[in-house]
Every structure is written in structure tokens, then in C-alpha cells.
Amino acid sequence: MKLELRGITKRFGSVVATNRISLTVEPGEIHCLLGENGAGKSTLMNVLYGLYPADEGEILLDGEVQHFTGPGDAMEAGIGMVHQHFMLIPVFSVSENVMLGHEATGFAGTLDLAAARERVREISERFGFHIDPDALVEDLPVGVQQRVEIIKALSRDAELLVFDEPTAVLTPQETDELMEIMRQLKEAGKAIVFITHKLREVRAVADRITVIRLGKVVGEADPKATNAELASLMVGRPVELVVHKGEAQLGEDAFVVEDLRVVDAAGHVNVDDISFTVRAGEILAVAGVQGNGQTELTEAIMGLQDHVTGSIRLDGKELRGRSVRKVLDAGVGFIPEDRQVDGLVSSFTIAENLMLNRSFKSPFVRRGAVRFDVLREFADEKLKEYDVRARDIDSEAGELSGGNQQKVVVARELSRDLRLLIAAQPTRGVDVGSIEFIHKQIVATRDRGVPVLVVSTELDEVAALADRIMVLYRGKIVGIVPGDTPRETLGLMMTGERPKDVVA
Predict the structure, then answer these.
(1) Chief location of this protein (predicted)?
(2) What angle do CA 44, 173, 402 make, to 5 degrees?
């Protein structure tokens, strides 16, 4: 199926999200849309998928103009979309999710689950997905859930597949597997639109690259171009892809964790008697495949886990057993791994989100009343400082692109007087220009003498930021190594193996 977009324009009030964008995607081609957060990539694809009506322009499939009134029309025409945040129902099985919205019925109107199971098996075997049709989605790893999304699209005979930031929540291994799946789909003759801002992925699979900036196409790029060339075209200026940081000026042991153990409600040990120290002016990065205790570790520090033993001390004072508010009041800044669930209130404005953890005290509140003039001045300043792409500070956080939502969270946490910063997946779903800025802010925090704990599944990020690296596997520390440890050694440690020269 050949896709042509001709002069697609979409406005939201006075904001022009896409400005006369035209592009073509051929069958058997992977066409990458590259651009910053808020550039208009996802809006363009939402127009294609029938989620938004275009204000101007045409959509053509195999030369015929299309008039979509909703996603159902787009799916009927052979378009499938794999969203950044999965559209799956956790308590349903794989088969039930795949047939949802296109329910096949058998005798007396009963659901034909057998047909859905067979369809899942057929597609799974064709592309080597190895998925149990009867497995509950909530029991599947994130990478496997994404394959279920792909099966959903293929089960409806999609000939054009749109992947919208598909690797934002994947581990490096799962990302590699997805790249291989995309190549298989291409070889099967599918047309693929791949939306991303990760330069390594673009160069790995793209046949053609269209770069969008501020709602406009600014050019096509050669997949063989260097990362620096692609980043410059995407952002509109030279971008530093290397984190420049001086030697750590280490102070005393400011943050000390001893014999920490976290057990879930079912009795499963998620963090298994670990001990480590972060010194003032140091970045300790936690590496590991997602699901090896990183989430439970940060939540235990923040007072979000119920069954915790051991000691968590900041500046000599015990944090374990304190409420979340008291942990925050102790000077802990927290960038959570899921901004939508734990970082923001999507129905609140940007300004309201920027004062969330200080909504009860100075400078934003005096004698029980919000000082709106102070809040507006602060929010305006942070909007500019962190380059949050939004209409104004009264825009709802839920209206922002994922990367701009992340910048709001980072701006809120780093604008406080911190004694400890915990940054979990700080640049997940963020473009190269914003990554450069966030990394500089984290290093600046460390250079002010603040201990920093960074949790990331991105080895490039870990290597860029870390003074030391702690690798977790199944809730245990495999080892704590210098920040310049080779990727190959770290990758081996992430599988649970400990090289001979690494001490636990």
C-alpha cells in the first residue's frame, strides 16, 4: 500500500501543529519521521489514523483520496497504529485484546475466541513472536505487550503500520528485537512509518528519513548521515551528543542505604538486602534490564513501598518509614520513571503541576491562599528556561507531548533546594536537544555537591552521566564499577554474570 500525504495542516486554536506537510511512503519501505518533541510528528499520524480531522490537505492510499471520520475508517482502509502508550486492557488475554472492537461471533452470538486464538498463533508463528494467545496482558513484559499491539494491527490486515515512539518504554534488548520485527514486516511488503527521535534507531532501520521541525518539513536526510548531522537538522542548531563533566568533587557519604529489602504483597522479594553509598557531588547510576528491582528501589526510598526493611539515611537522618511528603521535605527530588502515572496530574495546568510538591507552603502559599502572581512568574520563567513547548502556562499537562511533559517534571524537581536527586529514566521519550539540556542540569546538580542517583535502562545515558555504576539483577547488586566501564562488561553484568575483576 502506498501512502501520500499532501499539504496536511492541523491547528489547535492559534497553534499550528502541522503546517502543509507532504510525504510519501512506499510498500516495503521504512520511512522515519524524525523531530523534536512537539514538532508535530504524532499529530500528523493522528490525522492519518482518523483521530483528528485535517484542517487542510489530503490523504491518499494507492492513489485514492480518503475521508476518515475515525480510527475505524483508517483500520478498515488497512492502516494500523502501534502507540507509544499501549492501548491494551491488562486483565484481558492476548486473544481478547486482539479481537476487541472486531469481535467475531459464532453460534447464538457467542464470541468466537477460538478463531481469535488461531489468528494470534498464525501471526505469531509467521513473525516469530512466540506469544501464548491465552496469556493475560498484565503478566507479559513490556516488549511482549508491544508485540501484542503489532498482532492487533496485523490481524486486521494492515498494510501500512505506524509506530509512534515504539521504543520509549523498551529495554535495549527489546529495542533490538523490535528493529528485527520491523525488518521482517518490511520484507513482507508492509509500508512502515517509524516516529522516533533516537538517532541510533533511525540509522539502524530507515530507508528514508523526513525531518520535521516546528510543524514543518525541513528536509530529507540520508540514513547514512552521522548522528551529529541528524541531530543538527532535527533541532536546528549544533547539538552536543557528549556529556561534558569535570572530575567529581566528592564530599562525605551523604546518602547511605544498608541491608535494604523490599517485598511485595505476594511475598516476592524485589530488592534483596542491598547496600550502597552515594557521596556528596557524585552520580551513582543504576543499570539493569527493566524489572530487576530498580522501580521498587526508588519507590522504597520515596516511601511508596509498604514492606521495607533496612536503613535509608540522608545526611545521617533515617528516611525509611517516613511519608512521601516528609521524604520530599527532607530535600529529596524525584523524577519518576512514569511521568503520566507518578509525575503529573494531566488535567492540571502546567503552572499547577510546577507547584505540586510545594502547594502548601512558601513561596506559593501564604496564610492558606495561593499567591497566583508568584506562581505565574515562576511558571513563565521555567517554561522559558526548560524550553517547554506549550501555548502558555495555563495549558493542561495532558495536552503536551511526552517530552514536554518530562521537561515540566524535571523543571519542578530541579528548581527545589535539594539534598538528594533521584532521577528514574530521566530522558525516556525525550528528543536529543532536550536530552542534552536535562543531562547538563543533572551534572550541574551534582557539581553543586548534591548526591545523585540515576536509574536508566539506556546504557549510553548511564555511561554519559555516571561517576560509578551499580548493576542490579533480580534485586541483587551484581557489582559497583567505575563510570568508564565498557558497555560489553555492563551488558554481561546485566545478565547476572560477574566478571572476575568486578567486586560485588
Answers:
(1) membrane
(2) 30
Structural domain spans, the chain: 3-235, 240-331+417-504
What tens digit of pLDDT does each residue of 258-294 get?
A: 999 999 888 999 999 999 999 999 999 999 877 789 9
To 5 degrees, how large is the angle CA 253–CA 257–CA 260? 170
Q: In what order do the strands lie in the sheet with 283-287?
A: 332-335, 420-424, 452-455, 283-287, 468-473, 476-482
**0.90 exceeded by pTM:** no
Q: Which has the closest alpha carbon to 278: 181, 150, 422, 398?
A: 422
CB 306 within 8 A of CB 477: no
Helix (H, G, I), strand (E, B), or coil: what is residue 470?
A: strand
Q: Which helix (H) or strand (E) holds 496?
A: none
For residues 1 and 192, give the distance between their C-alpha atoms in angstroms, rounded to a whole number. Answer: 10
How many Å apart are CA 58 and CA 65, to the nearest integer? 7
CATH number of the domain located at residue range(s) 240-331+417-504 in this protein: 3.40.50.300
Chain segment 176-217, per-residue pLDDT in tens: 888 898 999 999 999 999 998 778 888 889 999 999 988 999
3-state secondary structure 275-337: EEEEECCCEEEEECCCCCCHHHHHHHHHCCCCCEEEEEEECCEECCCCCHHHHHHCCEEEECC
Contact partners, residue 317, CB within 8 Å, separation at least 6:
330
Determine the Cα–Cα distance for residues 340 and 78; give it in Å rounded to an integer. Answer: 30
Evaluate whether 3-235 and 240-331+417-504 have a shared fold.
yes
CB 196 within 8 A of CB 32: yes
Q: State the virtual CA torsion across 126, 129, 132, 133 in degrees, nearest 10.
A: -60
Which grid cell sits at 334?
524525584
Say whether domain 3-235 belongs to CATH 3.40.50.300. yes
Cα 427 to Cα 37, 306, 441, 477, distances in angstroms: 12, 28, 12, 24
Nearest partner of 408 among 328, 324, 339, judged by Cα: 339
Residue 450: what are its φ and ψ, rounded to 5°?
-90, 135
Query: Which grid coordinates belong to 266?
Result: 505476594
Whole-angstrom distance, CA of residue 163 vs CA of residue 486: 31
